[in-house]
Amino acid sequence: MTNRDERWFRTACGRNILLNAIHIRSFDHGFLEGRAELIRKKVLGELADTARELIRGTSAVFIESLDCPGDSYPPLTFFCGFTCYNAVDPSADCSSLTAVWFAKDLNLPIPEILRPHVAALDWAEHAADGYW
Q: 56-65 burial by CB neighbour count: b if 16+ within 10 A, else e?
């Protein structure tokens, strides 16, 4: 992602948002072994806090629902920090959101992996407004 244009995405509501930060790691980061259902429960329970630790300044977190059968989980977790220079509330200066998504692999360039997730995102519902 060397080109700044690759960091711009369009949401479901037509907003242009800028990817400011991204952290990719295994879903079971920090676990050597263990029962899948316990790992899944602990990781999901801590995702919002983990997102706030990884993407500093986060005031709003969106976590994609996990679509895996049973107690299984995906191999990868994406933590993405976004900014929109058009706030949800017209009296604000900007809005921001940290989104957490899951992936099975890294077979595509990162912008191509993120694009469908961002396109489905309801920015007005999940983002938090900010002031400069």
A: eebebbbbbe
Six-digit token string for 64 = 């994609």
Q: pTM for the whole thing? A: 0.91
| Domain parsing of the chain, residue ranges | 4-130
C-alpha 84, offset from chain centre: 14
Q: What is the pLDDT of residues 49-96, one digit of tens each?
A: 999 999 998 889 999 998 888 888 999 999 999 999 999 999 999 999
| Strand, coil or helix: 33 | coil
- Burial of 7 (C-beta count, 10 Å sphere; 0-12/13-18/19+): middle
Picking from 106, 92, 91, 115, the residue whose alpha carbon sits closest to that of residue 17 is: 115
